[in-house]
Write a structure and sequence with these properties.
This is Chitin-binding type-2 domain-containing protein. GO terms for molecular function: chitin binding. It comes from Drosophila yakuba (Fruit fly). InterPro entries: Chitin-bd_dom, Chitin-bd_dom_sf. The relative contact order is 0.19. A hairpin with a 6-residue loop joins strand 1 and strand 2. The chain has a domain of 56 residues. The longest helix has 22 residues. It is built from one helix and five strands. By secondary structure, it is of the alpha+beta class.
């Protein structure tokens, strides 16, 4: 058997193994709020990709602003505030009251 004959089946298997994980990694939901509901105004909301950041809605219908916590702190979604890392713990993200216009779920 020629070396090239075994290359293509192995290459195809490798592509098939990597394809599903590549598709799943395309969607990183930041849980950006839509700022369409009055309860979202001036209440920090978790940015789910980076625990050192949070979203803030200043006006109804405006785009949420991404803000950064002070150094050595992470955003706690239960307190809606940045807390020291010693007090922070990971939790699943909560769905915001609204999503931006045109939002497509993962």
């Amino acid at each position: 058997m020629h070396p090239q004959a075994s290359f293509w089946p192995l290459a195809c298997c490798l592509v098939l193994l990597l394809l599903p994980s590549g598709i799943r990694s395309l969607c990183n939901d930041s849980f950006e709020p839509g700022c369409l509901n009055p309860v979202e105004l001036h209440i920090p909301q978790r940015y789910c990709i980076d625990p050192t950041k949070y979203w803030l809605c200043n006006d109804i219908g405006s785009q949420a602003q991404l803000r950064k916590c002070q150094p050595n702190t992470g955003f706690d979604q239960d307190l809606n505030a940045c807390v020291p890392w010693t007090a922070w713990e990971w939790k699943p993200c909560q769905e915001p009251p609204s999503r931006p216009p045109g939002y497509v779920p993962c």
